[in-house]
Write a structure and sequence with these properties.
Shape: globular
Helix content: 40-55%
Number of strands: 4
Structural class: alpha/beta
Order of helices and strands: EHEHEHE
Radius of gyration: 11 Å
CATH architecture: 3-Layer(aba) Sandwich
Largest sheet: 4 strands, parallel
Strand content: 15-25%
Low-confidence stretches: none
Strand order of the largest sheet: 3-2-1-4
CATH topology: Rossmann fold
Number of domains: 1
Number of helices: 3
Mean pLDDT: 92
Amino acid sequence: MRLGFIGFGGAAYGLAKGLSESGSFEISFFDVRSATSAAGRLIAPRAEETGAQARENLDALVNNSDEILDALTSPGR
């Protein structure tokens, strides 16, 4: 199954880590923060560890996923 995450912070990383260990999922994500230096330094190693593939935009994520999980924080946080 191809699973896509919108956002790849702590929650998505934790889920992706557990799911990737099962070997049953192809994981990808789109996180607008990947381009920022602080967040990008956290996201890149997490993606590598879980085998998650970064997608360049939401359309690419949707087109390469069977299911999508929203892992964004609320605007107030």
